[in-house]
Protein: CobW C-terminal domain-containing protein
Amino acid sequence: MVNNGCLCCTVRGDLVKMLLDLVKKKKDKFDHIVIETTGLAKPAPVIETFCSDELVSRYVKLDGVVTLVDSKHAMKHLNEVKPRFVVNEAVEQVAYADRIIMNKIDLVTEGDLEKLTDKIKHINSIAQIKRAKFGVVDMDFVLGVGGYDLDRIDSAVKVDDSHGGNHHHDTHGRHHKDHHHDHLHDSAVSSVSIVSEGTLDLDEVDDWLERLMEEKGVDLYRMKGVLSVNGSDQRYVFQGVHSTLDGCPGKTWEPDEKRTNKLVFIGRNLDETALRKGFKGCLI
Ligand SMILES: Nc1nc2c(ncn2[C@@H]2O[C@H](COP(=O)(O)OP(=O)(O)OP(=O)(O)O)[C@@H](O)[C@H]2O)c(=O)[nH]1
Structure:
């Protein structure tokens, strides 16, 4: 147990200490550590502990963030308008999730579930979602997630045409911004997906992402991408949290495979036009 209080802000030091204690005393005796935060926790500082604390990141790695959504009450909280500079924790917890369990589905109608699914996907188009009663899901869904594994980004960045996010298909020149979501409240936190063929200049991509993190790091919660880059038969995969960015070559493209770039950004007040322009600027 970490100290009483809010795990996200007051006891990050305790979290580090607890993790290091566990590693020292129980080394090789556990496969996973599950941290349950309060319903009011901000996920970012917890996530960042694993990326930025040198000792912690040497011994443990963040597998993924699982968010349990109460299907009966979540919509109200997700739509709640907070005073300026006050974080809506429900939105944040959905935004940072790698897996989302929509629980208590027996208490709502199919229509309610569909609306809630749309809302969740609008905020976070990367997370896999499962419906559940009394929180029952397969263990595989919540452990061994690989949400921060560069090797597994390819399957994570699937852009779903039927829901959520602000999708743009550059290859078709279609601009269908949010046509599914007229009924949704305008959440400041959303996902922007870019799907486009074409080859990118990796140096330009590096510059672009670095600039983006410098200028928008605070508002850019997560990003993931699979890219087709010049002079390489391998995909280039990257993932980032705020101003931490990781990237490396991934799987080789098959000879007859369409080399489609896929990028997803999740954040607050994302400037979709600027993101698309930045991406285009990296195309050869
Ligand atoms: N009908 C129904 N009730 C559920 C389901 N899951 C949990 N409950 C009930 O909801 C009540 C409150 O449980 P939760 O909402 O899980 O409580 P919680 O916020 O996780 O509680 P703490 O983590 O202990 O603070 C309990 O009586 C549960 O039995 C579900 O899928 N369907």
Observations:
- Confidence is low (pLDDT under 50) at residues 7-11, 161-186.
- The pocket of guanosine-5'-triphosphate is lined by residues 70, 103-104, 106-107, 133-135 (CB under 6 Å).
- The chain has two domains: 12-150, 160-282.
- The longest strand covers residues 189-197.
